[in-house]
C-alpha cells in the first residue's frame, strides 16, 4: 500500500466551499469512487470521490470547514496509485433548478429543472433588525437554508450531535406544528395534512433521490415567487426536419460518430431570438428595481440521470454551430448520466430549454428557472393539415410553450418572442443573417 494525500479536485471557480457532510472516518475501508465528503456551493451540492481503494487514515476536514481546489481532506493508505488524470467530483443536484420536466427528443433524454438561485435575503426580526444566528450550532449550509426560507434558527429544536441544528430540523420546523412560522415566499399556505395511506390498502414507501430532496425546495420557491404565464405557439419544421435527418445520417457515419437531434437547432434559434429580445436574457436585480442584461448566451438543457435531473449548460452558444452544439450536447448528456458533471458545467445558464421530445403531449407550462426570466417548453412535433392559400397540405408542426416572469415580460413581448422563434425554425437560413 502507498500512503497518499487526497485533495479537493477541480470544482470550477468556487472558493471557500463549505463541507456539509463527512462520509468516512479513520479506519474505514473504501473503494475507488466512493464518496468521501460532500461540498455545497451556491450552484450545486457535490461529492468528492475517492481516487483509489484503500483504508482511510487521518481525516483533515470537518463539517463547516471551507475548502477550495487543492485543499487536503484526508490521507489514504491506497491499494494502488490513483490515476494521474484529475478526478471530477460527482455533482448530483444543481440547486439552481432546475425543474422537473422531462427533456427528451429522438436522441437526448432529460428533464428541465431549473437554475441559478438568487442570494438569500437577510432574515429580519419584528422591528427590522437582522436576526443573529451566531449562538446557534449549525453548519453554513443550514444557516443559508434558514435565511432562504426565512426561518429563525434560534427557535428551531436541534436533533444533531451536541445540539447541532440540521437541515431536517429546519424543514421539519418549517412544515410542521402550529409554532412554525410560514416562510415569506409561502406565507399563509397551509401544509397538506398527513394521511395514513396504509388504512386503505398495501403501500410501499421509497425515499426520494438526493437530487429530488435538494431540488424540491427550490422548485417550490420558484413556483411561489415568480408570477409566471405561458405563451403557446407552433412552428412549421417540415424543412428543418428533413435537413436534420440528413445531418444525423452524416453524423452516424463519421469517424467519431455523433447524433443530431432537434435540440441543437432549438439552442441556436433561441440564441438568435434572445439577441433580438434582450429582456428574455436578463434577471431581476436583488432589489427587484432593475434588470440585469447579460451579454452572454448560455443555454441550459436538462438531462435525465438514474438519480434525477441535472441541467448541463451549453456555454457561449452564440459562438458555436449546430454540429458543435450537437456534439457537446451528446458529451454533456453522457457525463450527466454517469454522474460526472462538474459544478461549472451546470451553472451560468441565461435561458433554459425543456423538451418532452419523443414522449408526446400537446403543450405544457414549464416552471421558470428563477433567476432566469423565461423557459422554453417543447413537445413532440406532429403532422397537421395547413392551409397554404390554395389547399391544405401536410406539414410537420412543432408546439412551443414559452413560460415567462410577468414582472419582466408582458404578454405582447412573449407573443412576439414565440413568433420570432417559430419564424427562425421555419427557415433556418435566418441563422446565417
Automatic annotation (TrEMBL):
Catalytic activity: N(6)-[(R)-dihydrolipoyl]-L-lysyl-[protein] + acetyl-CoA = N(6)-[(R)-S(8)-acetyldihydrolipoyl]-L-lysyl-[protein] + CoA
Ranges for domain Peripheral subunit-binding (PSBD): 137-174
One Pfam family hit: 2-oxoacid_dh
Entry GO MF terms: dihydrolipoyllysine-residue acetyltransferase activity; lipoic acid binding
GO biological process, one term: pyruvate decarboxylation to acetyl-CoA
Keywords carried by this UniProt record: Acyltransferase, Lipoyl, Pyruvate, Repeat, Transferase
Co-factor binding comment: Binds 1 lipoyl cofactor covalently.
Gene3D superfamilies: 2.40.50.100, Chloramphenicol acetyltransferase-like domain, E3-binding domain
InterPro entries recorded: 2-oxoA_DH_lipoyl-BS, 2-oxoacid_DH_actylTfrase, 2-oxoacid_DH_E2_comp, AcTrfase_Pyrv_DH_cplx, Biotin_lipoyl, CAT-like_dom_sf, E3-bd_dom_sf, PSBD
Cofactor(s) listed in the protein's UniProt record: (R)-lipoate
Lipoyl-binding domain boundaries: 3-77
Superkingdom to which the source organism belongs: Bacteria
EC number: 2.3.1.12
GO cellular component, one term: cytoplasm
Subunit and interaction comment: Forms a 24-polypeptide structural core with octahedral symmetry.
Role description: The pyruvate dehydrogenase complex catalyzes the overall conversion of pyruvate to acetyl-CoA and CO(2). It contains multiple copies of three enzymatic components: pyruvate dehydrogenase (E1), dihydrolipoamide acetyltransferase (E2) and lipoamide dehydrogenase (E3).
Family, per entry: Belongs to the 2-oxoacid dehydrogenase family.
Name of the protein this chain belongs to: Acetyltransferase component of pyruvate dehydrogenase complex
Organism: Rhodoblastus acidophilus
Lineage, broadest ranks: Bacteria, Pseudomonadati, Pseudomonadota, Alphaproteobacteria, Hyphomicrobiales
Amino acid at each position: 500500500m502507498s500512503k497518499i494525500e487526497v485533495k479537493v479536485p477541480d470544482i470550477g471557480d468556487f472558493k471557500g466551499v463549505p463541507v456539509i457532510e463527512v462520509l468516512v472516518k479513520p479506519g474505514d475501508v473504501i473503494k475507488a469512487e466512493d464518496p468521501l465528503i460532500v461540498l455545497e456551493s451556491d450552484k450545486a451540492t457535490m461529492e468528492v470521490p475517492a481516487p483509489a481503494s484503500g483504508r482511510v487514515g487521518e481525516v483533515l476536514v470537518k463539517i463547516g470547514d471551507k475548502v477550495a481546489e487543492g485543499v487536503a481532506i484526508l490521507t489514504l493508505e491506497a491499494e494502488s496509485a490513483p490515476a494521474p488524470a484529475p478526478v471530477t467530483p460527482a455533482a448530483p443536484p444543481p440547486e439552481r433548478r432546475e425543474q422537473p420536466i422531462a427533456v427528451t427528443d429522438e436522441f437526448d433524454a432529460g428533464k428541465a429543472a431549473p437554475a441559478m438561485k438568487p442570494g438569500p435575503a437577510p432574515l429580519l426580526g419584528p422591528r427590522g433588525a437582522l436576526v443573529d444566528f451566531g449562538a446557534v450550532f449549525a453548519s453554513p449550509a443550514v444557516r443559508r437554508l434558514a435565511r432562504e426560507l426565512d426561518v429563525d434558527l434560534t427557535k428551531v429544536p436541534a436533533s444533531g450531535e451536541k445540539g447541532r441544528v440540521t437541515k431536517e430540523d429546519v424543514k421539519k420546523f418549517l412544515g410542521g406544528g402550529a409554532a412554525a412560522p410560514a416562510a415569506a415566499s409561502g406565507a399563509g399556505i397551509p401544509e397538506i395534512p398527513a394521511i395514513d395511506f396504509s388504512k386503505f390498502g398495501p403501500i410501499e414507501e421509497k425515499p426520494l433521490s438526493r437530487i429530488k430532496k435538494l431540488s424540491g425546495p427550490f422548485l417550490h420557491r420558484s413556483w411561489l415567487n415568480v408570477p409566471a404565464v405561458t405563451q403557446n405557439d407552433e412552428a412549421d419544421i417540415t424543412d428543418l426536419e428533413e435537413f436534420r435527418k440528413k445531418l444525423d445520417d452524416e453524423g452516424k457515419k463519421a469517424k467519431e460518430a455523433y447524433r443530431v437531434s432537434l435540440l441543437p437547432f432549438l439552442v441556436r434559434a433561441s440564441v438568435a431570438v434572445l439577441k433580438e429580445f434582450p429582456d428574455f436574457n436578463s434577471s431581476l436585480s436583488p432589489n427587484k428595481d432593475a434588470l440585469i442584461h447579460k451579454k452572454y448566451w448560455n443555454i441550459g438543457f436538462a438531462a435525465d440521470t438514474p438519480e434525477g435531473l441535472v441541467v448541463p449548460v451549453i456555454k457561449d452558444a452564440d459562438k458555436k454551430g449546430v454540429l458543435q452544439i450537437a456534439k457537446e450536447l451528446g458529451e454533456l448528456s453522457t457525463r450527466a448520466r454517469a454522474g460526472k458533471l462538474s459544478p461549472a458545467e451546470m451553472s451560468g445558464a441565461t435561458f433554459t430549454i425543456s423538451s418532452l421530445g419523443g414522449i408526446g403531449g400537446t403543450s405544457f407550462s414549464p416552471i421558470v428557472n428563477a433567476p432566469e426570466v423565461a423557459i422554453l417548453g417543447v413537445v413532440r412535433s406532429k403532422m397537421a393539415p395547413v392551409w397554404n392559400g390554395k389547399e391544405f397540405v401536410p406539414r410537420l408542426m412543432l408546439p412551443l410553450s414559452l413560460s415567462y416572469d410577468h414582472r419582466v415580460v408582458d404578454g405582447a413581448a412573449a407573443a412576439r418572442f414565440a413568433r420570432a422563434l417559430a419564424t427562425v425554425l421555419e427557415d433556418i437560413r435566418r441563422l446565417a443573417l
